[in-house]
Amino acid sequence: MNIGSKSIDERHPCFIIAEAGSNHNRDLETARRLIDIAAEAGADACKFQIFAAEKIYSKKTPMASYLKDKKLVKSGESLWDIIKKLETPRAWLAELVGHCRARGIQFLCTPFDIAAVDELESVGVEAYKVASFEITHLPLIERIAKTGKPMILSTGMANLEDIEVALDTFHGAGGKELSLLHCAIAYPAKFEDLHLRAMDTMRQAFSVPVGFSDHTMGYVSDVAAVARGACIIEKHFTLDRRMEGPDHPFSLEPGELKEMVTAIRQTEAALGSPRKRHTVAEQELYRLARRSLVAARPIPKGTIITRDMIEVKRPGFGIPTRFMPVVIGRTARVDIDDDDIMTWEMI
């Protein structure tokens, strides 16, 4: 799978999506600043969400308990009211795309209705993200497939059948490139609810790149997911967790986002090669700090070497210790001084 110039698979660096979502609070300058922060942190993409309250929720939908528990709901406010306040104005799209390009970061977006796909097509997006909640919105997936663009599909709450139906719909409508994101739906999610090993199951079942969309506090789970082979990481971020809105409290702040990107890149570097060998960095101590055979006392030329004449000491560039039985019983070819590092030429 490719998004712009970035290849997404296990052979390439993890594709990091900084999820601005609706944390702009309907302020264009805040949205622009979020793009700046994502670029400065080293993320590969900054992602927003395009939805309309009228097309996403019935006005009779009950309030989500986590919003009430965290006192994120005002008196008399409905879930529909909250969503209405979070809409990203669609008139911003060209501005957001342009600012991302100016900052050298990929613009991504999650559409929640078919009209949003059409509008995103008009501003030239290069890929689509589908939220976990929309995995059963098959007309939306079909419309995205028909654009010919890559699709990233989150799978929170989904079982393998849900994923299979969504993928069949995507491919049946002509879609080609896609990836899956494992996800735990809770705001914030608990570590014990993540089940990162499910990424292995999805990778084996569907043979596509698999990543992780995270709603935990902090970024420990993101680093763990990368160590387990995640090709994509998606993480919410904000200017300030104290800002008003449902997604701010579990989002990373600017410094934390940068720390996460650094930690992921360090983790990738640490994963390295599957070959077990000493590295170039270890070369000097490989010679100096390993053990080899050293003379325990002076051994005159012609002496038959016995065990008590040999010590096992550093450095390691003498006769390897495993050859001690071969050395014992041999004759000294030259005078060997006390503490000499023994070599094959000496015997």
Overview of this structure, please?
The chain has helices at 28-41, 53-56, 65-69, 79-86, 93-102, 114-122, 138-147, 160-172, 198-206, 220-227, 254-271, 283-288, 324-327; strands at 2-3, 6-7, 15-21, 45-50, 106-111, 128-130, 151-154, 178-183, 210-214, 232-236, 292-295, 310-313. It is α/β, with parallel strands linked by helices and 347 residues long. It has 2 domains: 9-52 and 87-271, TIM Barrel, CATH 3.20.20.70; 280-346, Antifreeze-like/N-acetylneuraminic acid synthase C-terminal domain (Type Iii Antifreeze Protein Isoform Hplc 12, Alpha-Beta Complex). The chain has an 8-stranded parallel β-sheet with strand order 5-4-3-10-9-8-7-6. Helix 1 (28-41) packs parallel to helix 11 (254-271) and helix 7 crosses helix 8. It is elongated, with a radius of gyration of 30 Å. The termini are far apart.
Quick overview of this protein structure:
The protein has helices spanning 28-41, 53-56, 65-69, 79-86, 93-102, 114-122, 138-147, 160-172, 198-206, 220-227, 254-271, 283-288, 324-327, and strands at residues 2-3, 6-7, 15-21, 45-50, 106-111, 128-130, 151-154, 178-183, 210-214, 232-236, 292-295, 310-313.
**Chain-averaged pLDDT:** 96
CATH superfamily of the largest domain: Aldolase class I
General shape? elongated
Number of strands: 12
* Spatial gap, N to C terminus: 61 Å
CATH topology descriptor of the largest domain: TIM Barrel
In total, the number of domains comes to 2
Spans of at least 5 consecutive residues with low confidence:
none
Number of helices: 13
Question: From the alpha-carbon coordinates, what is the Rg to the nearest angstrom?
Answer: 30 Å
Share in β-strands: 15-25%
Percent helix range: 25-40%
Strand order of the largest sheet: 5-4-3-10-9-8-7-6
